[in-house]
């Protein structure tokens, strides 16, 4: 798979934009398919943002929810911590989006840097 990255030359700005669009699409699609969606594509109060579909009587929803849980933990980041109750208080609409964009920009910049180092100096 390393040979595919050797010819991939993408700017950091384009990489961040694609990651943000993909992240929102992933969260919206998984929440829509696996749980009951509330406002702004987030789950309604009985469902957790991370465990969407895990308590469903439908077995495929339970299995898919278990498989994508690590991805959701990384994508949601500190919002997944139980000490932070941002989603329980129903914050203003742009607050969660702004937080995710800020978090994903930092995360994506680190990923882009590490991929660039890996490509230039293969192991």
Shape call: globular
Mean pLDDT across every amino acid position: 75
In helices, the fraction of residues equals 55-70%
Series of H and E elements: HHHH
Percent strand equals under 5%
Task: Give me the number of helical elements.
Answer: 4
User: How many domains?
Assistant: 1
- Structure class: mainly alpha
Radius of gyration: 17 Å
Largest sheet: none
> What is the CA–CA distance across the termini?
13 Å
Q: Give the tally of β-strands.
A: 0
Low-confidence spans: none
Descriptive account of the structure:
By secondary structure, the chain is mostly helical. The chain has one domain (2-120). Helix content is 60%, strand content 0%. It has four helices and no strands. Helix 2 (12-34) packs antiparallel against helix 3 (59-76) and helix 2 (12-34) crosses helix 4 (93-120). The longest helix has 28 residues, at 93-120. It is globular. The model has no long low-confidence stretch (mean pLDDT 75).
Helices and strands in order:
Blueprint lengths: L1 H5 L5 H23 L24 H18 L16 H28 L3
